[in-house]
Specification:
heterodimer; A: mainly alpha; about 10% strand; B: alpha+beta; five-stranded antiparallel sheet; two-stranded parallel ribbon; 5 helices; ribonucleoprotein (chain A)
Chain lengths: ~160, ~280
């Protein structure tokens, strides 16, 4: 009995199959990446966002190498189909992520879908974008009773500490 | 069963007594040999050759020596624990301390002597051109090819196999490709190596000479479509065996996006430096 589990297990393959073959996959990822660099926040399916995330971060790594690096320029001109985004990549995105060693993107999965095919969507963005945050932080209201009591308690403690020292 | 056990006990006891007797005798003999016995005065004293001089080559500094890390030390991109690779590296260094595996590339001519129980003299020597270096870690292999009596012979040797007695580099050189499997479909003159070739002197500093030879092929069909871009072969004279129209047709299989695919990149520079320094340290101990 020949067990064909070998063909069902992917055995360390990291690239998902997308589109109509490897060329179609790369072209699709290129388009999504170009859109991401242009708009800095895009909404796609979860699988595509996951794939593009890796390429987006590697592209920023290449952009950090600088304008003058030949390999970086070749990569940028290949991956960005709209050529007016190449200077944006090198002059806006690369300096923004100077201090970050890695982790330039954020992916958030979106619950409800208005699509007909009920595809699971996700939002992919570069950190430091001008839009309001995906996970909005709830601001604590200082005027509630408990917060006022806590504020008073903290102030008393600070006063006692200052009096002691 | 109990009777056999009893008999065994007596046998073991007798063996032990014999062994102790032998040891005592040996000890007795050895002590007698150390002292100058009257037997030695009749024969002249045994000739002990003078100690061999130790040659320290100070003309070549450590800095000028070529830095070479054998490719099987570099671990592949996997999900296994790096501890496994470090354990393998320790074993590889241990073996290398016993057997000197020199630096060589695909395209160099090697002579390997291997222990063989069926050969006369228990060793067999094979000289050939290295066409492929495969495998990582202790299972690293290299394939030597030669043509003997008009018959092409390829032998795949495991570098860390205990059967291998010596590996000599007769000619150190590189070729335009890493994988010379296309020599199977090339004219036999490119794969023949003289079995009695003398080793050529190779410099331990400076660049390894690259042989930019372009090989002429036998008429098609070949064992593999060597003209296709996925093999990326530079060392074949395609202009003699294929028309320009065929060359254009073959570009259909080209995948130009692969060189821009960042997922396929595996940057080993830092890893190489780390492993190189580690291996140097272990070898010098």
């Amino acid at each position: 009995m020949r067990l064909t589990l070998q063909m069902l297990i992917s055995h360390g393959r990291v690239a998902r199959k997308m589109g109509m073959g490897p060329q179609s996959r790369i072209n699709m990822l290129r388009n999504i990446l170009t859109g991401l660099v242009r708009h800095e926040r895009i909404e796609t399916t979860q699988a595509r966002a996951d794939e593009v995330r890796f390429y987006a971060e590697k592209l920023v790594d290449y952009a950090k190498k600088g304008d003058t690096d030949e390999k970086a320029m070749k990569m940028a001109s290949f991956w960005l189909t709209e050529k007016d985004l190449v200077p944006k990549l090198f002059k806006v995105l690369a300096p923004r992520f100077e201090s970050h060693p890695n982790g330039y993107t954020r992916m958030a999965r979106i619950p409800c879908t208005q699509n007909l095919d009920r595809a699971k969507m996700a939002v992919l963005e570069y950190k430091g974008n001008p839009f309001p945050p995906i996970y909005p932080t709830k601001k604590q209201n200082e005027l509630t009773l408990i917060n006022q009591l806590l504020k008073g308690y903290r102030e008393e403690r600070a006063q006692l500490f200052a009096a002691k020292s | 069963m109990a009777a056999c056990a009893k008999g065994l006990d007596k046998l073991i006891f007798s063996l032990r007594s014999l062994r102790t007797l032998q040891l005592r005798n040996e000890r007795g003999l050895s002590t007698s040999v150390c002292r100058p016995s009257p037997r030695e005065d009749n024969d002249p004293p045994k000739f002990t050759p003078p100690p061999k001089p130790v040659v320290i080559d100070k003309t070549q500094t450590v800095a000028s020596m070529r830095k070479f890390l054998s490719p099987e030390f570099i671990p592949p991109r996997q999900r296994t624990d790096p501890f496994k690779f470090s354990m393998e590296r320790k074993d590889m260094v241990r073996r290398r301390k016993v057997l000197n595996i020199p630096e060589f590339y695909a395209g160099s001519i090697l002579a390997v002597t291997m222990a063989d129980p069926n050969a006369s003299g228990k060793m067999n020597r094979f000289v050939g051109i290295c066409i492929q270096r495969g495998g990582k870690g202790l299972g690293a292999t290299f394939v030597l090819r030669n043509i003997i009596d008009n018959q092409g012979v390829e032998i795949c040797y495991e570098m860390y196999s205990p059967r291998i007695q010596s590996v000599e580099v007769l000619k150190l050189e590189k070729r335009l490709d890493d994988n010379l499997m296309y020599l199977r479909d090339a004219l036999p003159e490119y794969s023949t190596v003289d079995p009695d070739m003398k080793p050529e002197s190779c410099s331990t500093s400076g660049e390894v000479p690259v042989n930019k030879i372009k090989v002429r092929m036998l008429p098609k069909p070949w064992s593999k479509h060597w003209e296709r871009p996925r093999f990326g072969i530079q060392g074949i004279r395609f202009d003699l065996c294929m028309t320009p129209r065929q060359m254009e047709f073959v570009q259909k299989w080209a995948q130009p996006w692969q060189e821009y695919d960042m997922l396929k990149e595996y940057d080993t520079s830092r890893l190489e430096e780390q492993i190189f320094s580690e291996v140097q340290r272990e070898m010098s101990k």
